[in-house]
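Why does residue order matter? Because the sequence determines the fold. Keep that principle in mind as you read this record.
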Amino acid sequence: MMLYGPLVVWLGLSFFGPYDVTQGIYSKLLYIHVPTVWVAYLGYTLTFVYSVLYFFTKKHKFDSLAVSNAKSGVVFTVITLLAGSYWGKQTWGTWWVWGDARLNLTAILLLVYLGYIASRQFNKDLGKTARNSSFIGIFGVIQILTYNFYFVFILSQIAIPALFI
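Structure:
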């Protein structure tokens, strides 16, 4: 029930919210693109939390929760990449800019968690599979931390001096 309020606000903004004069109606894709990446980050963070809990307790419910959150993260990352690519095509005139680290790191993040899901199929022993997957779930979140550190701290150090000139 608590989910309906934010969902209604999001839908209202997506359909009736303002759009950028320069980008036109395609700027509304950002109402989809940005929230889906944050939901994907939430899924990957919960995958990390449940993988750590599984690693220390060996309770299979934590492994199941980690897998389901990883799958949710993958779905939302795909939506993020599709919405962002379509927005980029309409705004920049190209589907993908290889020089943009955000695009490439998000695609690599998707591949890491697709590997996490695929690693579940390599071994029929559930305990061994869960243990091996928990390593990927624990270390996969490092990319999110690295990504945010890079853009928040490194790039802001470059941009801040330009503000005072």
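The radius of gyration is 19 Å.
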